[in-house]
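Colleagues,

For the teaching module next term, I've prepared a clean inverse folding example: a structure given as tokens, and then the sequence designed for it. I'd like students to try predicting residues themselves before seeing the answer, so please don't circulate the second half yet.
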């Protein structure tokens, strides 16, 4: 009996390792080309995320894993995102001007279109493409937003770690996500490739 349990556990471990390695390979390949089984591979990496993250943290840059996973999830969810009807755009407060006069609410920073940062333009463009912009300072804001909005799609702007984190969180709420990474990490003065953001919104509207 114990021998049988040992064999079963060994098989489970071996199969799990093979699936993880295959999923990692596909996630890396997704940066440059279309890959099959993107959704399944993303689910595998989500399931084993913490131990894989620990390995990356010791052996490589842990941000690499999040970058690969975001690429994989974008590929897996793009077609579903195109079919969404009620969309929100979630962007980080670290992109706003240090002189921003806008106030903060439970739903994030209320942009007043003062023109001091990119959010004045982003707010207009988001509305043009059918998104409602929310400028958030943490995941607690997102919980309030998804309770308020009946959104089925969320376009995310953030660093790769936050993108992956929010993607995993909103998946449980049946909200389809798509991520646009920031050009730099940090707590302030972060930037996004705005041309790429506009191009992404156009592609997701077709």
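(Answer key — instructors only)
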């Amino acid at each position: 009996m114990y021998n049988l349990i040992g064999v079963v556990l060994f098989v489970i471990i071996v199969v799990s390792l093979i699936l993880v390695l295959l999923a990692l390979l596909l996630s890396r390949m997704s940066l440059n080309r279309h890959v099959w089984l993107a959704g399944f591979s993303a689910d595998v990496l989500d399931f084993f995320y913490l131990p894989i993250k620990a390995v990356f943290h010791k052996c490589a840059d842990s941000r690499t894993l999040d970058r690969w996973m975001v690429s994989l999830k974008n590929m897996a969810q793009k077609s579903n995102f195109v079919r969404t009807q009620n969309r929100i755009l979630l962007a980080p407060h670290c992109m706003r001007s240090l002189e921003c006069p806008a106030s903060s609410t439970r739903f994030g920073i209320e942009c007043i279109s003062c023109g001091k940062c990119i959010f004045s333009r982003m707010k207009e463009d988001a509305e043009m493409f059918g998104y409602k912009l929310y400028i958030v300072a943490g995941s607690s804001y997102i919980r309030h937003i998804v309770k308020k909005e009946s959104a089925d799609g969320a376009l995310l702007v953030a660093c790769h770690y936050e993108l992956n984190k929010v993607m995993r969180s909103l998946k449980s709420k049946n909200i389809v996500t798509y991520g646009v990474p920031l050009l730099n990490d940090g707590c302030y003065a972060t930037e996004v490739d705005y041309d790429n953001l506009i191009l992404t919104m156009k592609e997701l509207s077709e």
